[in-house]
């Protein structure tokens, strides 16, 4: 749109497209065609004959990106046999760019709504995950991965830009606690106790780079899981090695923990800027967790009002406020379903 405003004449009809396509082809498509090994498309560099073919292909793509201007044709007259293909490519590319940049207002609002409903990251960064071998036997090595904590799950990937794999669903977390130093020879290890899909208790051990990072991760995990049902009241600060716990020497692996959990102990980051999207996600998730209790309370108040037995102060109607809250929750659920469908 900006380019068209600057060059409104009919002779500049293709200039707005060239502003997009020439850069797109020159910086992204053509380099990948000419040097596929550098973009991890091939295991080795092409031989001389194949390299020449790739060069010609890249030139053809660049001519398409330049909208087949006379200037580009004049430079390489020997590419004349390719002109029918180039012209067909120009028409297809113009149609693609038009669809790419033409966002209707409704579509834009739907996109914004969908993005706003996606779970924002609470905390992310590199951590070392402890691996097990055989029947849960502990190994001393840690593997470095990039972790991301949202209001939905704790996920990991090889790099920040790699596709993430969910490690633990947030609703399944039962505790996040420190691990005693003697267990791994480090004071920066935490454990996340959770239930797997089969309902079995599992533990993953994560090592942080320093004590500050450890406290921040523990705080973040506890904050987002504080309303989870089934939070543990105790845990083992050690590990189960051999046939007993290293902390209390109990031989039963499923034995109750020997130390109290600290699920409500979090950092008070008073200087952190308020993340409105994150706070809204946390409130929404908490309301979903207590929806059944809210509906039961609403029925109780409604029944009490009908019989005259409910205790309501002068000019107050608590069931009305509760009904409004339940309606808001229904609206949020409908919006979330609509956003997911989009």
TrEMBL record:
PH domain location: 120-226
Keywords of the record: GTPase activation, Metal-binding, Repeat, Zinc, Zinc-finger
Domain of life (superkingdom): Eukaryota
Xref: InterPro entries: PH-like_dom_sf, PH_domain, Ras_GTPase, RASA4_PH, RasGAP_CS, RasGAP_dom, Rho_GTPase_activation_prot, Znf_Btk_motif
Gene Ontology biological process terms, A to Z: cellular response to calcium ion; intracellular signal transduction; negative regulation of Ras protein signal transduction
GO MF: GTPase activator activity; phospholipid binding; zinc ion binding
Sequence ranges assigned to domain Ras-GAP in this UniProt record: 1-66
PANTHER family named in the record: RAS GTPASE-ACTIVATING PROTEIN 4-RELATED (PTHR10194:SF4), RAS GTPASE-ACTIVATING PROTEINS (PTHR10194)
Name recorded for this polypeptide: RAS p21 protein activator 4
Organism: Neovison vison (American mink)
Taxon lineage: Eukaryota, Metazoa, Chordata, Craniata, Vertebrata
Gene this chain is encoded by: E7ERK1
